[in-house]
Amino acid sequence: MASSKISGSAIKGFANASSYDTHRPSYPSEAVDDLLAKLQVRGIKNARIVDLGAGTGKFSQLLAARDEHFDVVAVEPHEEMRKECAAKKLDGVKVVDGVANKVPVETQSVDAVVVAQAWHWFATDEALEEIYRVLIPGGNLGMIWNVEDYNAPKSWQPRTTWEATMKDIMWSYDDQHPRFRHEQWRQVFDKQLSSNPFTIQAADPLFSLPLGEKSVEFVYWLHPEAIWDRFRSLSQIAVLEGGELSSVKDKVFAAMNAPSVEKNDNGDLPLHGRVFYAWTSAIPGAPLKNGG
Predict the structure, then answer these.
(1) Are 241 and 292 in contact (CB under 8 A)?
(2) Which of 79, 100, 115, 181 has the least CB density, counted as fewest CB within 10 Å?
(3) How many of the other CB atoms lie within 10 Å of CB of 250?
């Protein structure tokens, strides 16, 4: 994750970077391939890509494994997450300290910026302007999230009762820090088309609208312990301790072990969710507020 200032919730919630990297999922290859096509870098040898808010390098790892031999700059301000990413020693990936409103790359030097599981942390005008600065004219911005049913917006209906119970638990520990499920991450783009007597921002949007959007449903069969590890890696649950953490764990396992819950012969449960991704392109020649 990256922002002008890392929130205390994020610093503490992502402190166990190794656990995060172990238990958080990667992204389906077909979704990654499609997003890269939308960003016009699929098949482009040595295209330069910024992985902004790279975390432990989940997405950078996928970029490094591709045949395009991308030149990747993984930008991450959280020290423990950044160390975890750097320890992977990914081919073609330079891991750097940086924030979303001060990306440490040259102006108009990047073909695409990708934000995986992080845009909601820093969806601000300043970040959007900085992304515009580093992109080549007409370059592209992509955002992607893995969204389990239990961590989804309230308007998304969970596909099982036990996942609905886990979703209720998740929302009961909402800490008011914006995440994908709050559905606020679009607002910074929508503001480009808003105007009032005190602003003329609508006259000069930086990125094309409407956003391209796509979601693909997934089902993973996981053991209850693995589901709990994944659930606990979420930052607002990761900060819990002692009796409060034990209480949440008891509730989660009670939901997963209910008699009506479907399990396979190995005792695994079907974990449902969606991969959601969005993309947009920088409008060449748009003026920046800071004069860039």
Answers:
(1) no
(2) 79
(3) 10
